[in-house]
Write a structure and sequence with these properties.
- Chain A: This is 3'-5'-exoribonuclease.
- The complex is a heterodimer of chains A (194) and B (310).
- With 194 residues, chain A is α+β, with helices and mostly antiparallel strands.
- The two termini of chain A are 33 Å apart.
- With 310 residues, chain B is of the alpha+beta class.
- The longest helix of chain B is centred in the last third of the chain and has 27 residues.
- Classes of the chains: A alpha+beta (194), B alpha+beta (310).
């Protein structure tokens, strides 16, 4: 990706390295049923725990709400900071900002620790899907910030859906006023079948 | 998206007008503005186009240039395809909020949207034709878009201009030879022909999708929102439809509200109908769009022709 950018804060790996190439053939997951034997419309079992990040410290820097979400091999954690002072001091409505980051070890190929435009776009997607559900008019001049970290990922679209569910849980844990919670699910089209 | 500051009275005027079926510039809710399209005006690029959507000579203005480069294959990449790299930049001269780092978010959103429309089988481009030698070399098409002016409907203008630029793109011809070395191994080598007249057009560009953006204002929606209408838009949905009437990409934007599923189905059907009309309109504009700057004949040689001819 960025072979000529040297990160001076870390001890760097070799300047040029490539992912290993596996020679085994990839099985078609739809030919003989899904690899984990699920039905076509079955989701992976979900585990959600709210409040894992704020129990330890009672300092002012603790997040207002947090959630940890697991679905199959997907593991996502979200922290909500806010409502806190926003950037515009004359805004009639609060602002909702999302920050999305894959941990470098979360995907099958190593990811850069610098945020890529992919992650920035997913953050925008998360904002556009969750902001309509928040009662932003109850938080003028304030901003609500969500920080999502993907600890382990298993399918890009499914991870985005997991992030949306995780943020909804974290917002509820933070006590932010919501019209409704937002739920998301990913689907894929294979031939003629969903 | 760039937004105008409107007084509450003006906002109310536009919202109630749209709900009653009237728009501030007299259009119907599904009517689109005039388009100016020019291709081939950048001689250094393999393909270029400039598109302006707006009435009375003022509107959203996007300039797209396509440059082709040869890239070496690295293990881990697909073996027999070329690739497309998109980049969209909003010029700070287009709107005040694009100054400094203000355009960062919108640049990312537009770049990823264009990438989603173009990268993949739904775009209609045959990426296998961009491969020069499998596992060795392939063409990379760098598509760079510059948004010069913003008067509502950036995405549609961007997709129009990109479509025109790719349709006018032609690549230099490549000669591939297999040479045997001392041990009898066959090695393939390629040579790019340096003749500026010897070009092959990019295949499959007429299968590219075209986009239609619906803006939700009050209880109704409009197509091709103007600047004022965008300031009161609560949510917008962009649908990219291919000439085969397949929906290639859908992007929802807007932080204020969502779309009910019944409205979503209605919008998708309307999008296909409008896309059919837009594709016909595109074809007639494109056929007249060839820039005359490339012919030496009796054109004035000053730089003002770029502006005058548009």
């Amino acid at each position: 990706m960025s072979h000529n950018v040297v990160d001076r804060r870390r001890i760097n790996g070799p300047q040029r390295s490539v992912e290993p190439v596996y020679t085994t053939k990839v099985l078609d997951p739809f030919a003989t049923g899904r690899l984990d034997e699920r039905a076509l419309d079955q989701v992976r079992p979900i585990f959600i725990k709210t409040g894992p990040l704020d129990a330890q410290s009672l300092s002012a820097a603790a997040p207002s709400g947090s959630a940890y979400y697991e679905q199959g091999k997907i593991r996502v954690s979200c922290a909500i900071y806010g409502p806190r002072q926003g950037r515009k001091s004359n805004a009639r409505m609060g602002s909702f900002d999302c920050d999305f980051k894959y941990a470098p070890f979360s995907c099958s190929w190593k990811r850069s620790h610098i945020k890529t435009s992919d992650e920035k776009e997913i953050a925008l997607m998360l904002e556009h899907s969750i902001a309509p559900a928040i009662r932003l008019e109850s938080y003028p001049k304030a901003s609500i910030d969500a920080f999502v970290t993907v600890i382990e990922s298993d399918g890009k679209a499914a991870t985005i859906a997991a992030a949306i569910n995780c943020i909804s849980a974290a917002l509820a844990d933070a006590g932010i006023e919501l019209y409704d919670s937002v739920a998301a699910c990913s689907m894929a089209l294979h031939g003629e079948q969903w | 998206m760039a937004s105008l500051i409107l007084s509450p009275a003006e906002q109310d005027y536009i919202i109630r007008g749209v709900e009653s079926g009237f728009r501030a510039d007299g259009r119907g809710s599904l009517d689109r503005r005039e388009v100016s399209l020019r291709t081939g005006m950048i001689s250094q690029a393999n393909g270029s186009a400039r598109c302006r959507i707006g009435n009375l000579g003022v509107g959203t203005d996007v300039l797209v240039g396509v440059k082709a480069e040869v890239n070496s294959w690295t293990p881990g990449e697909a073996e027999d395809v070329g690739s497309i790299v998109c980049n969209v930049e909003c010029s700070p001269s287009a709107a005040q909020e694009f100054e400094g780092r203000g355009a960062e978010e919108i640049n990312v959103e537009l770049t990823q949207l264009l990438d989603r429309i173009l990268n993949g089988p739904q775009s209609g481009l045959d990426l296998k034709k961009l491969c020069i030698i499998p596992k060795q070399a392939y063409w990379v098409l760098h598509i760079d878009a510059l948004v010069l002016d913003v008067k509502g409907s950036i995405i549609d203008t961007l997709v129009w201009a990109t479509r025109a630029a790719l349709m006018s793109t032609s690549l230099p011809r490549v000669v591939v030879e297999t040479i045997g070395d001392e041990m009898g191994n066959m090695q393939a080598e390629f040579d790019v022909v340096d003749d500026p007249e010897d070009l092959t057009p990019l295949e499959g560009a007429e299968n590219l999708p075209i986009s239609v953006t619906f803006s939700q204002i009050g209880k109704r929606y409009v197509v091709d929102a103007s600047e004022q209408e965008e300031a009161v838009t609560q949510a917008r949905l962009t649908v990219a439809v291919s000439p085969a009437m397949e929906i290639c990409a859908i992007q929802k934007g807007g932080m204020l509200r969502g779309f009910p599923p019944s409205l979503l189905t209605e919008i998708l059907e309307t999008a296909q109908r409008i896309a059919r009309e837009e594709l016909t309109r595109f074809k007639s504009h494109y056929d007249n769009a060839k820039s005359h700057l490339t012919s030496q004949a009796d054109e004035p040689s000053t730089g003002s022709t770029f502006l005058v001819q548009f």
